[in-house]
Amino acid sequence: MAADLDLLISALSSDDAYERSVAAEALGNLGPEAEPAVPQLISAAKDADPEVAYLAGQALARVGTPEAQRAVRKVTVPALVKRLRHEDYTERSDAAMSLGELGLLAESAVFDLQKLFLEPMSEPALHAARALRSIGSEKSVRMYKQFAQQWQEVFIEQLLHKDEAVRDFAEFGLKLLDTPEARKALDAMGLDHPSGE
Questions:
Q1: What gap in Å lies between CA 76 and CA 69, rounded to an integer?
Q2: What is this structure's pTM?
Q3: HEC string of the chain?
Q4: How far apart are CA 69 and CA 137, in angstroms?
Q5: Please, what are the domains in the chain?
């Protein structure tokens, strides 16, 4: 195991971004056993490649030591918050999803996530709502519920829209919101949905 760990730590310094990302993800899969890699993961969390940086941050979150968690809050979360302002909506969506995966470690990002609600009928806004729910703080869950309450009725109505693209987006939105009302509406239309909480 120690030899494998050393190889993964070494791969974090590779010139190839793909190798660095694979190493960071593998270290994350080791969880607390990857604690010896924390200094290298902290460096990798500052990588110029956003995928490497995020996977290193996720690995740090899974290691879970106080030092690793501090690095997630000080390096990974601010980098993802910056991506929330990216001009490309897929970058904004990915950043929101990534923040949600960090749970409470991303609590400082809740107001930045809420800003994505200014583009309410969009994937970034939906992913931001889902991230707020996943972060799980009292404040973030309250924000998620307000967004879900406001938009689920719109999406439920749009399930019957004549335009297929509108119906598809409404289905996508209801699945991401994943409220009891959303699941009920999806059931009524014979559409699959997440299992819920």
A1: 10
A2: 0.85
A3: CHHHHHHHHHHCCCCCHHHHHHHHHHHHHHHHHHHHHHHHHHHHCCCCCHHHHHHHHHHHHHHCCHHHHHHHHHHHHHHHHHHCCCCCHHHHHHHHHHHHHCHHHHHHHHHHHHHHHHCCCCHHHHHHHHHHHHHCCHHHHHHHHHHHHHHHHHHHHHCCCCCHHHHHHHHHHHHHHCCHHHHHHHHHCCCCCCCCC
A4: 17
A5: 1-83 (1.25.10.10), 112-197 (no CATH)
Kindly report, residue by residue over 106-121, the tens digit of the pLDDT: 999 999 999 998 886 7
Distance CA 136, CA 95 (A): 17
Neighbours of 20 (CB within 10 A): 22
pLDDT class of 1 with cuts at 50, 70, 90: low
Beta carbons of 51 and 86 less than 8 angstroms apart: no
31-86, pLDDT tens digit by residue? 999 999 999 999 999 999 999 999 999 999 999 999 999 999 999 999 999 999 99
* Burial class of 105 by CB neighbour count within 10 A (0 to 12, 13 to 18, 19+): buried
Contact 183, 192 (CB under 8 A): no
pLDDT tens digits for range 138-151: 999 999 999 998 89
Say how far apart CA 188 and CA 130 lie, in whole Å: 23
